[in-house]
Design a protein that fits this description.
Elements: E1 3-6, E2 9-11, E3 16-18, H1 21-29, E4 33-36, E5 48-51, H2 75-91, E6 95-98, H3 100-108, E7 113-114, E8 123-129, E9 134-139, E10 144-145, E11 153-158, E12 163-168, E13 171-174, H4 185-203
Parallel strand pairs: 1-4, 1-5, 5-6, 6-13
Antiparallel strand pairs: 2-3, 7-10, 8-9, 8-11, 11-12, 12-13
Helix pairs in contact: 2-3
Length: 205
């Protein structure tokens, strides 16, 4: 069975960790196993990873002071998120970053963020893909990429010139939330990539 590692989110209102039911449902629709990650020792069990949304990255990681609107995430959870990117990059494993997940990727490789923007909270809007076609997506974020890390290609932009999708080899990040879409071509393609990676890995043993 194909296992995709996912991390929890800290729900500050409930004072506990939770996992995205949207992602879990999407994986199960494709007969995939969501592997709930609480320790880096679990990474070797995964065939791929998804980093979903969450709080804000500590701006000290990209050399900035904290903006008044920056809402820091759990530091131990954030440490795990960066460890996932490191592991996926080192072992050339498929990794999808959603919302904060894309921002983590960018910061890990040396990029920076805008700490507070407007007009991207709880809204559906078009993004322009690299082939110039438009796709309507759902977004809910107040931070975004400022300086793009070296090695990434921009795969989508918003009409207000915000970076919406980036890719470096098997690492893909999107600023929107494909997991809430009824039929997400992006998630389906990622799941197929994870399956192909597992087959290739076994053939090369």
């Amino acid at each position: 069975m194909i296992k995709i590692g996912i991390l929890p989110r800290l729900n500050k209102d409930l004072h506990r960790y939770v996992f995205s039911s949207y992602l879990i449902d999407k994986m199960r629709e494709h007969s995939l196993i969501p592997l709930f990650l609480f320790d880096e020792k679990q990474f070797h069990e995964c065939d791929g990873f998804i980093l979903a949304g969450g709080g804000d990255i500590d701006p000290l990681r990209y050399g900035q002071k904290k903006h008044p609107k920056t809402n820091l995430d759990d530091p131990e959870l954030e440490k795990m998120e960066f460890a996932v990117v490191s592991h996926a990059h080192k072992h050339q494993m498929p990794l999808l970053g959603i919302c904060k997940g894309m921002q983590v990727m960018n910061v890990f490789f040396g990029g920076t963020l805008h700490q507070n923007i407007t007009q991207h909270q709880n809204m559906t809007h078009p993004v322009i893909l690299s082939d110039k076609t438009e796709l309507y997506v759902y977004s809910d974020h107040h931070q975004c990429i400022d300086q793009l890390a070296s090695g990434f290609q921009i795969k989508a932009m918003s009409r207000d010139q915000r970076i919406e999708a980036i890719q470096m080899n098997q690492i893909l990040g999107v600023q929107w939330h494909p997991e809430v879409e009824k039929d997400s071509f992006l998630l389906t393609s990622f799941f197929q990539e994870v399956a192909a990676h597992k087959v290739t890995k076994h053939q090369n043993r």
